[in-house]
């Protein structure tokens, strides 16, 4: 062995690299071990290749191998690597991530607030066409699933007269990756829940905007699920103001959800109905392949 | 194998010994190879997520309307290659990521692979600790001068080969030369940083302290992107140098030992 820093003292510090020394191994054992390791490596490579193909999105596969992707998919499905199993596996991973998020969640933790000088431009991220202004005149907020058993409809004036306005400067984080700090004003969801208590067995709120439009301007109701613990958080607002002025159509006039501990897609604009439910209600983007917990 | 060796078999066994240098702990080897598909998948899905809302933006280009440097770069490459297939603006995303307009599926894949990447990273650190391999990665004072010697050597390899002049490799007195050590030391550091910045973006409210470590949300995004460039950029010279160094170096990452008892390796 030539790899000795020879002149140094043999006892070196804990951090110091130990000199590499050769060992003598019977050739047959070395060959058997190498055979085993290479076999393991080959099996692993094949498994990784099959797994990669299995997990790739269909459109990516079609682009990569326009002629043979169908045949490969059929082959993969025969050994259990089917599209259905892939979706199930990815959904399970999403649920695991949601469980981790829920374990991290504390209802007493406050969302970071900013000063008004830190406000950044907020874009209108309506997926379809921005609705209105026709709906504004007849707008009211419907509440159902209440403890009283009867439904409620409240106008924006009734809501603003009855509940105190709270301001907060928080960051809205979009699932796409952009975020914006904005100065919001609104009534606390918790106050509405206290004034119009949901049925005792209710655990969820289903928020719906029946005025939402798709890209062609056709009605495309938007709906999100929010657990009542999140709804009762003091920083969860039914926002009515942005930057000190009533909400514009682009930002969900006259009332939108502002839950800054959830991704922007949960922060439904132009809410028209809130229903309290026992089971978790449907969620628009969850039905389109996104997570449904969306906690930040 | 004989359990009661006679003098003859003992003699034969002694003649049949191979001398090898143990190189990589089994967990280091395993996690090294598992990292290959994981890292490629994370980069591909990560770029698909980045496509939805790039963090590095410039004012909109008057002609293309693009605000994204990666779109500009893709467009330039597509035009240079006269590649008319697909949307030229998304050339880079079409070739390095899962593709444009794949946010939902890219996010799901990214979370799956990210959890596996963290698990694999833990296996790697365990292997470094168990095999003592971490000591070869610890930077040392002599590395600065040795790094310059190595850079000088690499710059001279091709010209000296053309001139047919001898160009000896600088002496290496440990497992790695200074450049290797810097690169291999940087990998777990970047790996840790990419995981931390990823969590800062994933849970900026519950892990607010982590988000603040990166100044703000976009700070975490930029660090995450930078770590990806570092981890991804490492792959190219790494593979080139392993090929240049030869079979023994490649095999050592599969079987764990090197048959080069006298020479140093230069992957």
TrEMBL record, chain A:
Indicate whether RNA-binding appears among the record's keywords: no
TM stretches of this protein: 38-56
Q: Give the UniProt keywords, A-Z.
A: Membrane, Transmembrane, Transmembrane helix
Which positions fall inside the Oxidoreductase molybdopterin-binding domain? 136-285
InterPro entries reported in the protein's UniProt record: OxRdtase_Mopterin-bd_dom, OxRdtase_Mopterin-bd_sf, TAT_signal
Q: Which SUPFAM superfamilies match?
A: Oxidoreductase molybdopterin-binding domain (SSF56524)
Q: Does the keyword Repeat apply?
A: no
PANTHER family membership: BLL0505 PROTEIN, PROTEIN-METHIONINE-SULFOXIDE REDUCTASE
Q: Indicate what this protein is called per its UniProt record.
A: Oxidoreductase molybdopterin-binding domain-containing protein
Lineage, top ranks: Bacteria, Candidatus Eiseniibacteriota
Automatic annotation (TrEMBL), chain B:
Q: Which residues cross the membrane?
A: 33-53, 112-132, 144-162, 182-201, 222-244
Membrane topology of the entry: Multi-pass membrane protein
* UniProt KW DNA damage keyword: no
The cross-references to SUPFAM superfamilies, in alphabetical order and at most eight, read: Transmembrane di-heme cytochromes
The question of whether Nucleotide-binding is a record keyword is answered with no
GO MF assignments: electron transfer activity; heme binding
Question: What's a Pfam family in this record?
Answer: Ni_hydr_CYTB
Give the protein's recorded name.
Cytochrome b561 bacterial/Ni-hydrogenase domain-containing protein
Keywords of this protein's UniProt record, alphabetized?
Cell membrane, Membrane, Transmembrane, Transmembrane helix
In terms of superkingdom, the source organism counts as: Bacteria
Any one Gene Ontology cellular component term annotated for this protein: plasma membrane
For this chain's UniProt record, which GO biological process terms are given? respiratory electron transport chain
Q: Where in the cell is it found?
A: Cell membrane
The lineage is: Bacteria, Candidatus Eiseniibacteriota
- Residue span(s) of domain Cytochrome b561 bacterial/Ni-hydrogenase: 24-254
